[in-house]
Amino acid sequence: MTDHELAARLATEAGELLLRVREELADATGEERKAAGDKRSHDFLMEALDAERPDDEVLSEEGVDNPKRLTANRVWIIDPLDGTREFSELGRDDWAVHVALWQDGELIAGAVALPAQGVTLATPTVAAPPDAPGTPRIVVSRTRPPAIALAVRDALGGTLVEMGSAGAKVASVVQGLADVYVHAGGQFEWDSAAPVAVARAAGLHTSRIDGSPLVYNQEDSKLPDLVVCRPELAEAVLRVTAAG
């Protein structure tokens, strides 16, 4: 099984597990669903990677960071449940599972599962988004649209699309449901690694908000900002985001 196939399979299977957790805990509190989802998906992914790629290191949102990854050639970067709030709210579908592989300085494989939508987007081949409408759509959090996204909307004469998790937001650009995702409010490597790998495979622009490259498997796993957008909009978006 190739790394691409493994990423897609594990993201999909973790998503199926999370759907079962959601069903099992339908009568529980949202906090109980969040905790169970995070733990069970993390445990599943760690066990599966240990079985399938025992020589590789793993960086997981829910795990203890092992400094051995900093000298490793191959590191899986995973978010077992991206969008715990949305997952905990029964009926919402804008949450995800991220599985990415970093090797020798680059993201080489990745998958974003959207379990409640029955969709997994995975490298190496991801369809480019369909043609965009005339008005750029900027995807933002439904509760806290960042000022930088509002500035991009104003500069592009665009509209806002509200959505939950980071993975779901990037996926919406890949799927052609939005055109721009900008974030500057603080994230970690696992929030963006798999979505960025998928977005790149679809031919989208990905970078920091100042236009510099997104770099993974760093000692400090914080990676606070990013831009994912249609390539034809990148120059206009970065003109706003790089200006701060």
- Strand order, largest beta sheet: 1-2-3-4-5
The number of domains: 2
Helix and strand run: HHEEHEEEEHEHEHEEH
Number of strands: 10
Rg from alpha-carbon coordinates: 17 Å
Can you name the CATH architecture of the largest domain?
Answer: 2-Layer Sandwich
Put simply, the count of helices is: 7
What does this structure look like?
It is a single chain. The chain has 244 residues and is of the alpha+beta class. It folds into 2 domains: 3-122, Fructose-1,6-Bisphosphatase, subunit A, domain 1 (Fructose-1,6-Bisphosphatase, Chain A, domain 1); 137-241, D-Maltodextrin-Binding Protein, domain 2 (3-Layer(aba) Sandwich), CATH 3.40.190.80. Helices cover 37% and strands 23% of the residues. Strands 1-2-3-4-5 form a 5-stranded mixed β-sheet, with helices on both faces. α4 links the parallel β6 and β7 (159-163). The chain is globular.
